[in-house]
Write a structure and sequence with these properties.
CATH superfamily of the largest domain: Winged helix-like DNA-binding domain superfamily/Winged helix DNA-binding domain
Distance between the termini: 17 Å
Radius of gyration: 18 Å
Shape: elongated
Helix content: 55-70%
Strand order of the largest sheet: 1-3-2
CATH topology of the largest domain: Arc Repressor Mutant, subunit A
Strand content: 5-15%
CATH architecture of the largest domain: Orthogonal Bundle
Number of domains: 2
Order of helices and strands: HEHHEEHHH
Structural class: mainly alpha
């Protein structure tokens, strides 16, 4: 499994790719210069790091994701629950909601999710 942890800067960079993919690496350099005030070398360093971690690919000068945004955030969430709560979703939910009362709307949304998951395989 890819290392799905990204800091704030890497996340902003990833969002640029997801919002514009597939894109040429030169186009990405220009976009990062405009949006992040990065030099070419910074763009390529961060891109290589995220490619090495299995999140993006740069093949023949074309940058694309190996996970779309939704797949990435779902996998990142599963990885977090696995590493932090030994894979226990109830333990995660208990920690997440500790000291925070859920609104009626939130409770209904969570219940609807739980109901939709009934009978689905792990």
């Amino acid at each position: 499994m890819a290392d799905l942890k990204m800091g704030a800067v890497e996340t902003r960079f990833a969002e640029l790719i997801w919002d514009n993919e597939p894109m040429g690496s030169g186009e990405l350099v220009k976009l990062c210069a405009k949006e992040l005030n990065w030099k070419k070398s910074t763009t390529y360093t961060v891109l290589k790091k995220l490619c090495d971690r299995g999140i993006f690919a740069n093949e023949d000068g074309v940058v694309r994701s190996l996970y779309n945004k939704e797949q990435f955030y779902a996998a990142q969430s599963r990885q977090y629950v696995e590493e932090t709560f030994q894979g226990s979703l109830p333990a995660f939910m208990a920690a997440f909601s500790a000291g925070h009362k859920l609104s009626e709307k939130e409770l209904k949304e969570v219940q609807a999710l739980l109901d939709s998951w009934k009978g689905t395989p792990d």
